[in-house]
Amino acid sequence: MKRRALALLLAAVMVSGLAACGEKPAENKGSEGTAANPSTESSSEAQAPDAEEEKDDYGFSEPVTIKVGLSYAADFEWAEGDSAENNNWVNLYREHNIIPEILYEVDSSQADTKMATAIMSGNYPDIITASPSDFINYAQTGVIADITDVFEEYATDYLKEYLDADSGLSLQNCMVDGRLYGIPMMENSYDSIPMMFIRADWLENLGLEVPKTMEELKEVAHAFTYDDPDQNGVDDTYGLGLDGVDILVNGGGDASAIFAAYNAYPGKDGLAFIEDENGKVTWGGTNAEGMKAGLQLLQDMYNDGSLAKNFITMDSNSIFEETGAGRCGIWFGPMWAAMVPASNAVKADPKAHMIAAPVPTGLGQDQTEIFLSSSLTHVFCVSSKCEHPEALIKLINLSVQKLCYPENDEEFIKYYGSAGGSTGNKASYTVTLAPLKNLDNYRKESAALLSGDTSELNTEQLGDYNNMKGFLDMYNSGEFDVEDPIFSAGISYYTVFGDPQGSYATIDKMIANDAFKLSAYNSFPTDAMAENAATLKKLTVETIVKIITGDPVDSYDSFLETWYALGGEDVIADAQAWSDAN
Q1: How far apart are CA 70 and CA 103, in angstroms?
Q2: How many CB atoms sit inside 10 A of residue 106's CB?
Q3: Distance CA 431, CA 165 (A)
Q4: CATH architecture of 2-187+376-427
Q5: pLDDT in tens, 246-255
Q6: Beta-strand (E) ranges in 108-152?
Q7: Mean pLDDT of 371-395
Q8: HEC sequence for 85-97
Q9: d(Cα 41, Cα 395) in Å, to the nearest integer?
Q10: How far apart are CA 205 and CA 301, in angstroms?
Q11: 383 touches 115 (CB < 8 A)
Q12: Which of 104, 136, 194, 476 is a good FRET partner for 15, with 20 to 30 A between their CA atoms?
C-alpha cells in the first residue's frame, strides 16, 4: 500500500494540452518555459536495437510532421540564438525526422483557454499535456488516442525503467477501461512533504532545543515572541508564521503538518483520503478530535501573540518576507521553503541560521507521520487525429535517454541546460528527469562537502557543490559579500542539500524511519471530487481560520456535518469504491 501511494506521488502532468506528438518531459529549477506538446522523431542516429524488427524507437525513416502548441511562463526568455524554431530540442527532433508545425505560442496563463478553443475547432495539437480531469475527459470524448499497442511496440528499456520508479502505479492510473491513454510525468513525492523550519541561532541565543513535541513548539514560539531571540533589544519578532490565505497549501506557512501531529490529514487540496481504524477509506479531516487538538493549539498561540495576528492576510510570499527579514522564527513547508528566506536573513543578520526538522509530535507518539499525497498531476497524450501516435512514445524515449540516462555530461548539459548556455529542457516538448533526482543529489553532494571528493558528482551536482562550497568558504573566512551571486545561491542550496540539519537531511531521516501516512486513494479525481473539491476546501479553510481566531473549537463538529452534506459523502464513497476495486 505504501508503495502504491509513493508511486502516484511521482507522476505529474502539465495542465494544458501543449503540443504535438510526444517528446520527453523535462524538469527545471526556477521558472519554466513549457512546450505544451512534443513532436515526433525520426530515425537517423538512433537505430532500432533489433535489426530484425526494422523499427526506430527514437524517430522515423521519413519526415513526419507533428502539430504542436507552445506555452511559456510569463518570465520565460529564450537564450541568445534560441527560438521556438531553432534550439537543441527542435534540432534533435528534426534529426529524427520529427518536424514540428507550431500551431500557436501563448503565455501559460492562456494555455488552457487556447487548447479548449483549438479542440472545439477540430484543429488541435498532436501532443497534449493534460491535467488529471482533462485526461479523463479527453479519453472519454475521443480527443486523445489509445496508445496501448504503440507503447508496447516502441517503449525503450530506459522508458520502462523510468516508469517503474513507482512500480508502474502511475502508468496504471493512465489507463481507461483497461487501455493506456497517456504517459505520466514522473516526479518525486518527497520534494513536496512539509517539515518544520526554525531559526537555530535564535534557539542557541535563548538556550533552547529544537522542539520535538507540539507543546515544546508552543513554548519555543512564545520565547521567540517575547524573549528577544535576535538579541537586538527591540520587540520585533514572533514565533509561528502561517499562510492564512490558503492555510492548507504546502508552501511557506503550511498548517496541515500541525494537524498531522494529531493524526488528522485535511490535505493540501482539501481532499486527503486515509484508512481509518476500521480499514475504511475516509477524508483525513474527519478525525474531529485530532483536528480540534490542532486547532486548540493554534488558537492558544494566536491568543498568546506567538502566532502572527495578521496571519489571515499572509500568503507564502508574506511568510518568506517575514522569515527572511528576521521577524518570524518558525514555519512549515516543503524542502525549498528556506531557500529564499535563508539568503535574505543573512543579509539582515550574518549569524542567521535556518534549519529543518521533522514535524513535532502531538500525541506522545515516536514520530509524526506526514501525508504522502499523489503527485499524478500531468499526463502526456497524443491526439486521436494524429496519423503517427507512436510519435509520442518516440519523443518520450528521446527525452528519457537525454535527461535521465545521458551518455555523458556534455549530452546532459546540452539538453538540460546550464547557466549562460542554451535554453535547455525548457524547450523540450515533454519533460522528464529521474524521479528521485533530488534525493540522489543530496546524498552525493552532502558527502562531497564532507570529503572534498567530487569524482562521483554529475554536472548538475557539481554546480550545486561549487555554489555551496563557495558560500561556506566565504562564510567561514568571515569575509563575504551577501550580494555575491555565488554566496547567495550557495546558501540557498545549502539549506536543501548541504546542511546536516537541512531539508533533505530531514527527508532522508523520514524515509529511513518510514514516517509517512499513505494515501488511500491514488488516482485521478472522480466527477464528484472534481465537482465538489473547491467548495469543500473553501469551507474547510474558512472554518479553520475562524476557529483559530476565536470561534469555539467544538464548532468543528457542526462543520463536519455541513462538509458531508455539501458533497463530502459522495467523494468518500468514490474513494472507497476505488480502493475496493484496487
Answers
A1: 8
A2: 18
A3: 16
A4: 3-Layer(aba) Sandwich (3.40)
A5: 999 878 899 9
A6: 127-130
A7: 91
A8: CCCHHHHHHHHCC
A9: 6
A10: 22
A11: no
A12: 194
Instruction: Characterize 416-431 residue by residue with b for buried, 16 or more Cβ atoms within 10 angstroms of its Cβ, and e for exposed.
Output: bbeeeebbbbbbbbbb
Question: Taking Cα atoms as reference points, which of 569, 570, 545, 571 lies closest to residue 556?
Answer: 545
Cell matching residue 109? 496563463
Going through 231-323 in order, the beta strands assigned E by DSSP cover: 238-240, 273-275, 281-283
Between these two residues, 31 and 305, which has the higher pLDDT value? 305
Burial letters 207-239, b for 16+ CB under 10 A, else e: ebebbebbeebbebbbbbbeebbbeeeeeebbb
pLDDT at 50 over 70: no
Count CB neighbours of 1 within 10 A.
11
Higher pLDDT, 525 or 98: 98
C-alpha angle 269/188/149, rounded to 5°? 95
DSSP string, 392-415: HHHHHHHHHHHHTS-SSHHHHHHH
Residue 81 is classified by DSSP as: T
Residue type, 164: D
Cell of 264: 488528522
b/e sequence 314-349, b meaning 16+ C-beta within 10 Å: bbbebbbbbbbebebbbbbbbbbbbbbbbbbbbeeb
Please state, in angstroms and rounded to a whole number, the distance separating the CA atoms of residues 136 and 22: 18
Mean pLDDT of 560-577: 97
Query: Phi, psi at residue 172, to the nearest 5°?
Result: -60, -35
Q: What nine digits make up the cell of 445?
A: 553532494
Q: Are 517 and 373 in contact, with CB atoms under 8 Å apart?
A: no
Q: Where in the chain is the domain with CATH 3.40.190.10?
A: 2-187+376-427, 195-372+519-581
Rounded CA gap, 129 and 114, in Å?
A: 13
246: its cell numbers: 490558503
Report how far residue 518's alpha carbon sits from residue 273's, in angstroms, rounded to the nearest whole number: 9
Q: Which CATH superfamily is domain 195-372+519-581 in?
A: Periplasmic binding protein-like II (3.40.190.10)
Please provide residue 183's backbone torsions phi and psi, each rounded to the nearest 5 degrees.
-115, 125
The SS3 of residue 131 is: coil
Residue 436: per-residue pLDDT: 87
Helices first, then strands: H and E counts in the chain: 22, 16
